[in-house]
Design goal:
The complex is a heterodimer. Chain A is α/β, with parallel strands linked by helices. Chain A has helices at about 25-40, 55-60, 65, 70, 85-100, 120, 140-155, 160-170, 185-190, 220-225, 255-260, 280-290, 310-325, and strands at about 5-15, 50-55, 80-85, 105-110, 195, 200, 205-210, 210-220, 230-240, 270-275, 295, 305-310, 330-340, 345-350. The chains are: A alpha/beta, B mainly beta. Chains A and B meet through helix 1 and helix 4 of A and loops of B.
């Protein structure tokens, strides 16, 4: 399964993570898709397949995902699909489609506008309707429960959380797409008040509006149009039980399993872009993936500095690809997550020649 | 539970509030509508007219800036219509069958869907019927009903469309602009 050289990422683009975009989702998605295609040296006419990741509930617009096709250009008719997931899972579907061997390019994107709604009201609705939804268990409270479990287990301290946040925010100063950034050190951050204990504001990713698009190609096509393709060497995703109470929240068994299948342990990972929405999650994910100190984690700042829902996971993969295509790296990974408290996880290992 | 017992049924209504920022294109459209102009955009490549302006052409997938804004006519023709028999679902305000029509505006064009024809008996509505906008007096116009989401946004400034009394339009002239 791992060590493949048959399909590569040949182009990518993303919007900044925006606190509240004035443009509609389609309006900021269209130039993003255009930019990804331009970077890939591929025209729309050549595309064999398109797959989108989005969730109508974010903006409360019925069939928002259908309207998004106006940004794709669906006339003449195209072959396309959609997942009610982060764009990283749309990429997985496009990858499977390309494995059939009859087409050689695919467009993938993830997009979302979280700003019109209140995530604290929307996300509890995806939880168990009898025991958790009536509690109004919002994502930040769940993140805090996971953080508390990690502290109680002795595996991490609040200082460890602050160090993740400090490093992420400092890295973000070099990322024009980041929503927040800063140069406060861990001590300074530890002095801030709790937002939802034991999480402080900087431990919590700001939900954002945004989009990310990328282009996949099979080997011959990739070599024809791209100087340095980011080969998808391994790709897998796994899911755990829906109920957070059924899981050990201090580990991520699905990330470990997906990572193993994707071949993470088969070589050095130079850069890992992880979708940790809460700083403690980065510690959990690093352990699950077996990343030691030599891996550069989230040089973009990661999800913690800007989390455009439905695009953030795909954006991690795009950043991991950029490290290869533009950054000269040879082996990187992107991680995406879905569901409450790291319920479902996807790992994509990329390699450069 | 025995076989004879009725299952317990419970209504659970979920309500989620959403607040949009009015998009840049709808801001321009609203301001023009308040002043009595229906604003659209015309794509320089395919020539299609979009109303309200979208800021892009979905056929050519290009961004359309303000330079492609074009004022549209407030007269047109009914190209399609539906007589809706209202289902009494929770929140439904209508009780009697009502018409929603698609109107093709006169040149340069533009299609407004879901338009109302107040005062016109449902059975009198027909394709080819020439209509004009029934503008609300300028001082009474409101932009509150306009948002990013509705189709054929005229709420608050135009109170539906009324027949002009002109002869019906030849279907050959609108048959490929029904929707």
């Amino acid at each position: 399964m791992a060590g493949r050289r048959d399909i590569a990422i040949i182009g990518y683009a993303q919007t900044p993570a925006m606190a509240a975009a004035q443009e509609t989702e389609v309006q900021f998605l269209l130039p993003t898709i255009n930019a990804a295609l331009e970077k890939a040296n591929i025209s729309r006419k050549e595309l064999g397949f398109t797959c989108a990741g989005s969730c109508d509930y974010l903006s409360g617009q019925s069939f928002a995902f259908v309207m998004n096709l106006e940004a794709v250009g669906a006339w003449p008719p195209i072959a396309e699909s959609h997942v009610e997931m982060d764009g990283a899972w749309a990429m997985y579907e496009a990858w499977v489609r390309l494995l059939h061997g009859d087409i050689d390019t695919a467009l993938v994107f993830g997009s979302g506008k979280s700003s019109p709604g209140d995530p604290a009201q929307i996300y509890p609705l995806q939880l168990d309707p009898y025991s958790l939804m009536p509690l109004g268990l919002d994502p930040t409270s769940l993140g805090a429960l996971q953080a508390r479990a990690l502290l109680d287990s002795g595996k991490a301290t609040e200082r460890d959380f602050a160090e993740v946040a400090a490093r992420s925010r400092s890295n973000a100063t070099g990322n024009p797409n980041a929503q927040v950034s800063g140069n406060d050190d861990a001590d300074t951050l530890l002095g801030k008040p709790y937002a939802t204990a034991p999480l402080r504001a900087h431990d919590i990713a700001p939900f954002a509006d945004g989009a990310c698009a990328l282009v996949l190609a099979t080997a011959d096509k990739a070599r024809e149009v791209c100087d340095r393709p980011a080969w998808i060497s391994g790709f897998d995703h796994r899911v755990e039980p829906h109920q957070p109470g059924f899981r050990d929240l201090t580990v991520s068994a699905s990330t470990a399993a997906a990572g193993k299948s994707a071949g993470v342990g088969e070589g050095i990972i130079e850069v890992a872009e992880l979708s940790a929405t809460y700083s403690p999650q980065e510690l959990i994910l690093r352990e699950a993936l077996g990343l030691n100190g030599t891996t550069d984690v989230n040089p973009s700042g990661g999800a913690l500095v800007g989390s455009p829902m439905m695009a953030v996971g795909l954006a991690r993969i795009a950043e991991a690809a950029r490290q290869i295509t533009e950054g000269g790296k040879s082996r990187t990974l992107g991680h995406a997550t879905s569901g409450p408290a790291l319920q479902q996880n996807l790992v994509c290992v990329l390699e450069g020649d | 539970m025995s076989d004879q017992e009725e299952p317990l049924m419970m209504d659970q209504f979920v309500e989620l509030p959403y607040h949009d920022l009015l998009s840049p294109t709808m801001v321009r459209y609203s301001e023009a509508l308040a002043e009595g102009t229906i604003l659209g955009q015309q794509c320089p490549q395919c020539g299609l007219v979009f109303v309200p302006p979208r800021g892009y052409c979905p056929i050519d997938t290009i961004v359309l800036g303000t330079e492609y804004d074009v004022p549209l006519k407030d007269t047109g023709v009914v190209t399609a219509y539906t007589i809706v028999t209202p289902v009494q679902y929770h929140g439904q305000k209508e009780t009697e069958p009502f018409v929603r029509a698609t109107i093709l505006l006169d040149e340069p064009g533009g299609i407004l869907g879901l338009q109302d024809l107040p005062g016109v008996p449902n059975d009198d509505v027909h394709t080819g019927m020439r209509v004009q906008a029934n503008w609300i007096p300028e001082s009474e116009r409101s932009l509150e009903g306009l948002d990013n989401r509705s189709w054929g946004a005229t709420a608050g400034c135009i109170r539906g469309w009324k027949p002009t009394g002109e002869p019906d339009m030849d279907p050959e002239l609108y048959k490929d602009k029904v929707f």
